[in-house]
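Here is my example:
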Amino acid sequence: MLEDNHADFAPRYDPKPVEEKWYKYWEDKGFFTADAGSDKPKYSIVIPPPNVTGSLHVGHALDNVIPDILIRRKKMQGYETLWLPGTDHAGIGTQVQVERLLAKQGLTRFELGREKFLEQVWEWKEKFGNRIVNQLRRLGCCLDWTRMRFTMDEMLSRAVREAFVRYYEKGLIYRGLYIVNWCPRCRTAISDLEVKYQEQNSHLWYVRYPLAEGEGYVTVATTRPETMLGDTGVAVNPDDQRYKSLVGKKLKLPLTGREIPVVADEVVEMEFGTGAVKVTPAHDPADFEIGERHGLERIKVIDEDVKMTAAVPEVYQGLTREECRKQVVEDLEKAGLLEKIEPYRHSVGTCDRCDAVIEPLASEQWFVKMKPLAGPAIKAVEDGTVKFFPERWSKVYLDWMGNIRDWCISRQLWWGHRIPIWYCGCGETIVAREDPKKCPKCGSSELRQDEDVLDTWFSSALWPFSTMGWPDQIPDFKKFFPTDFITTDPDIIFRWEARMIFSSLEFTGRVPFDHVYIHSTVLAKTGERMSRSKGIGVDPLEMTDRYGTDAVRFTITFLESQSQSYRLWDERFELGRNFCNKVWNACRLVHPHISGFQPEGDALRNARVSALPVDNWIRNRFNRVLESVNEGLDKYAFSQVAATLYDFFRHDLCDWYLEFSKLGLKNGSAGVHATLYEVLRGTLQLLHPVMPFITEELWQRLGFSDGSILESAWPEPLKLDKQDTDKVERMRQLIVAVRNIRSEMRVPVKQLTDCVVSTEDQDLADFLKKNQGLVKQAGRVAELRFSDQRPARSSLAVIPGCEVYVPLEGVVDIEREADRISKEIDNLKRAIAGIDAKFANPNFEKRARPEVVENERKRRAEFQDKLARLERQLESF
């Protein structure tokens, strides 16, 4: 036995020593290590690789608690499980961290040079990069640490090269001039998905563009007057009657002296501004497309430092974009070409890494053609090969994939997978899986590798199969790929899930996983998104220190209800802590009664035969809970799982069965001992995936097996005789009715009351008579009687199959209670009317937060239920 089963239970659960002990034990015993040669059916998951720069936040907690629940259950169900860990090199994020350290020393990466800078990054990664690994251990994650991966490991780097070369050989990678999102602070292009938009107050400037010939002008509205210096056209909608006669004519571009054409293009919105828009093909993605269609010149007027280039008049050269905007507006006013300025609020793109305002620039970049890859990835979701949970996210995925743009995969960084393309002085371009020694065309060894690195998401897209050894067919790949499940935040469906799906289909011919679970977004108490940098939200590591890991795991599982989002704050973790203490204390109470119980052979069979109806009732309730938990885990209804276990343990098991079992324990009933043993054993097994530490500790203390709870088999339905379980349930409802009456009538706790039952069900009456000791004990009942006549001045409750009366004459002051109840009824009616008034206002449901609306509905239902009960009580007087 791993633990002294007769050791004293501490009166309070202390998670710290329990967590340290059992995680080390699981890891030392190799419980997390998968066997690729096993004959068992497999169940595999790859971790959403946290950035090597990261430390644990609430998103990580959800990303890892959810799969840990699934893996632990599958392991107990007899599967060969693999949960593969790893971290992502996080190109921009890591490089920014190291550059900040260098800046403190007065250095830049350019002063160090590429090779020395990368040495610094690797040193930083080795020193700080595995913080999150230890934090995942704190969470109890049963990750196979013998298979730890890093996106720039040799094996994964080889896979990245292989994928790039295959794309290139298939004609899916090309270099082209295109508008990219340029971050001036990170000094690299970033993808559309790495741009976040912020609402900002600005202006619309209305600028007059004079006709090149004759009198008149066209007024255009712009939010960026500085970019007009790069205009090469003005576009109007072909259906706009105001401008039909001007299409094809030339305008004078203010402040430059250049002439530009008026072109007709259907994308122009006639309702925006004046209906005429300036076209700056080098600095706006929509303008770039218009320029392509009409053959307009691309003039780059803003550079990578967001300063004005030599392509603008000399007076503006070298100014920042903000300085230039101010100067251009002044000059337009002086020239009489600024018609008006209007306040305007619009979305401005910023870098999601550093918050710098993005500059759209026409730039030479490497791209992957997406249309050929998108088709199979769309089909895989449409035909159900890949299923999203909740299902609504499949539509979000399909909408995005149906309108996908080519993927810009090059980044102007030094940290990352360098693009495997070399250039020779003879003009030859070499794309190779291995570094070439010489040019295949001229034989020169003077080769220059492309300076750019690949987008971080390029390697992440290969994660489910590159971590399994692809392109080699090693045992891990054969056994564990494709994986079964992935979970992530809604924000990276497009950055990651979509790219994994099309990459896997392209390179392996199979989807990377069967099921995608998109978990809720966790908000702060105020409703804001959590942000560590802004000090908003909850630190899960601090919460595990304060409340214990199992408390944190249980709480976030309980709240994970497949909703779009939910709010979380520190005190909500008290739910999990209190539940841990409830489980601990219940087992502490039961321990002496099941210690030494032998659950094998004739003893167990004889104990089951002697089981009382209340024993079979709790067995039946357990079987229902088992069914609900299995169903919840199968459809990823995690809140259902946690709530079901919470209600069963706290109410059915502790509030009722432990109360019912007192007489049986006193009388030495073998059926009670066996039932306590089997139900508590099975309940700990069901709780284990959610609360692994406390359940392992209790498993050992209660002596349920010689091994770990992780080695035990997932529960099966318990054997029982259902004959009288429905009567036990009605007896329980009778006791609840008596308790409610006593509570509502404010009967003192020590004061016993009689209970009179009226029923035509003789079997029920006989059962209640036989078990009246339980009714008296649990309901504080002095005498249980049966009569068709309602006693005078009694309170009434109706349950299935009978009416229950509690005589109150001489127990309470009837007149005073009637007066009190009348006042409480009036208060309840006013409260209900107030809630109804809210719902009568059509704006309430439209504007109020969903949880507020739902809470008001619940309050009304509770008030209405209480009102009906009190009105019955008043009537009975």
Remarks:
- The radius of gyration is 35 Å.
- Residues 1-6 have pLDDT under 50 and may be disordered.
- The chain has 29 helices and 29 strands.
